[in-house]
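From the methods appendix. Each design record in this collection lists the discretized structure first, followed by the designed amino acid sequence. Records were kept in a plain field format so they could be parsed without special tools. The example shown here is representative of the layout used throughout.

RECORD:
C-ALPHA CELLS (165 positions):
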C-alpha cells in the first residue's frame, strides 16, 4: 500500500483532535493471488493505538476519524461507545453471523484478532465462523477461547476443504 493514514482522536472538551499515525496492515495472502490486478479490491486493517498516557489518564476519546492527511478536513467521525452503552441499541437490530475466509498464515496477529472479534460482538455479531488451515499457536488459543464461549465456530482443514469430485 505504501500510503500513510492518520487517526484523529476527538474529545468533547477539546477543540483540536489528537492526531496519530494509524497502524495499517494489508489482509492479503500471496497464495490467494501473488500478482493481483491494480483495480482489485484489497482488505486493510487500520488500528488507531491509544497512547499510553491517554490510557493511564482515563480520558477516552469521544470520536475517531481516519484520513490520508494528518490535518485534513474530516467529514466522518465515528462515535466511540464504552461498554454497555451500545447494548440497548443492539436490541433493535437483528443479529448476524460473519464468515471468515480460510486462515492459512503463520504470523501472530492474535491481539488484532481479539480487537476485531470484540468489535464484531459489540456491533451485534452473534457468531463468527472461521475456516482454519494453518495458523500461529496464539491464534489457536484465541479461537479456542471464543469457541468455549459459544461465539466462534471453527471449521478445521479436514472439514473446510471441499471433497474431491
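DESIGN:
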Amino acid at each position: 500500500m505504501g500510503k500513510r493514514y492518520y487517526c484523529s482522536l476527538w474529545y468533547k472538551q477539546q477543540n483540536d483532535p489528537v492526531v496519530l499515525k494509524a497502524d495499517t496492515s494489508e489482509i492479503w495472502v500471496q497464495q490467494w493471488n501473488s500478482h493481483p490486478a491494480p483495480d482489485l479490491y484489497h482488505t486493510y486493517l487500520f488500528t488507531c493505538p491509544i497512547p499510553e498516557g491517554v490510557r493511564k489518564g482515563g480520558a477516552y476519546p469521544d470520536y475517531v476519524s481516519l484520513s490520508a492527511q494528518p490535518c485534513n478536513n474530516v467529514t466522518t467521525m465515528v462515535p466511540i461507545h464504552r461498554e454497555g452503552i451500545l447494548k440497548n441499541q443492539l436490541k433493535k437490530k437483528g443479529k448476524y453471523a460473519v464468515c471468515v475466509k480460510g486462515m492459512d498464515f503463520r504470523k501472530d496477529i492474535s491481539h488484532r484478532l481479539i480487537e476485531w472479534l470484540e468489535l464484531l460482538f459489540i456491533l451485534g455479531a452473534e457468531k463468527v465462523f472461521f475456516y482454519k488451515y494453518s495458523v500461529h499457536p496464539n491464534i489457536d488459543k484465541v479461537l479456542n477461547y471464543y469457541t468455549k464461549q459459544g461465539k466462534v465456530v471453527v471449521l478445521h482443514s479436514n472439514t473446510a476443504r471441499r471433497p474431491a469430485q
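APPENDIX NOTE: The longest strand covers residues 125-134.
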